[in-house]
Automatic annotation (TrEMBL):
It comes from the Bacteria. Its EC number is 4.4.1.-. Keywords: Lyase, Pyridoxal phosphate. GO terms for molecular function: lyase activity. This is Cysteine sulfinate desulfinase.
Amino acid sequence: MFDAALLDQIRARFAHVDSCPFTGARIFFENAGGALTLKSVVETTTRFAAIPDNQGRDNAASHALVDVITKSRADAMRFFNASEGAVLFGESGTELLFRLIQDACLGAGPGIVLGSTVEHPASRSACTRWAEVSGRQYIQVPHDDATGQVTPQAYAEHVTPDTAVATILHTSPVTGMAMDLPAIAAAIRAKAPNALIIVDGIQHACHGGIDVSAAGIDGYVISPYKVFSRHGYGIAWASDRLTALRHDALTGAPAGQWELGTRDTGAYATFSDVVAYFDWLGGTLTTDTDPRARLTAAAKAIHAHEHALTQAMLRGIDNLPGLTDLPGVHIIGGADNPAREGLVSFYSDSVPTAQIVAALNDAGIRTHIRKADHYSGNILTPLGQPDCVRVSLAHYNSPAEVRSFLSAVQSILAE
């Protein structure tokens, strides 16, 4: 876990870390819905919003904007640990998942589309649509309801040599469980080496490092507002072979160009702020001068800090009982699940979920209700559970905030 001095430095870099501009003091445990924003991102957004110039003109301002975009692409490649391929900026993470899956389905050779039942509707919906359009069968590998995961072995049982396109969810926004991405990709490649593999990394991105080179995949998508930036854009990495496929583009545009129209230079610049933040954090933890090594150090420390916080939430801290000690409380995905990444979802036998979320909100603790709807029904419906409380952490959250949460939950359930 981060020491108190470093945690104070971390928290000082985020806007509204302990108060809501509408309601006042609060603890933010709704990070899976959108993380806090770096102060540097707010400043960068304001600065670039005032610039009237466009990219691609022959003047100093335009050249400066192009330099910002070029740097941002390089920063994103380092963030993804990509040695080849292209970085593309789009409307949102969901939109980019649709685009990459569309291009893969329309451009791959004959064969099936393979995904899993644990996935977010962004990838499942895209696969359903584009498998139908491209005349392919769409098969979903069943996930384990008890753990909230889909395993490499489960993929191995369903992948066939004619698998043309495959999708993988890196981390679930409902259970908080991470999938073994490299092992799942390897299981797919073992039988279908030419399959195009696209990953939804939207929930994972702020919790513990991305390495597309080690994973052996073709596409990886994130939503920057869930990794300390802002709304209004998404980022994806696409391999050389995915980029080489035909995709929506202006006639006569340069080969390999993904973006349609002029995108906000400020979006590019704010992602450089995100990478710079990870670089700063890693620099406080290692003396290694290699930029990627600093990102890796930051990711490992973030994962360790969040693991300690979720364990405290589950098992208790100081003299406060954890969620597992409270009668009638059930943990989605199981309490003893090593795949957990900064998120605990639970429900109570005695108090309705909506009442718990409302009472926590009244106590100044922001959480969220997940319902068995088109977003979370794939996880909750097989459990026979209509809803759950989602408590989602980030590395700027503190042990004191966990203590406040546990104290509030104990009181709510007792009443």
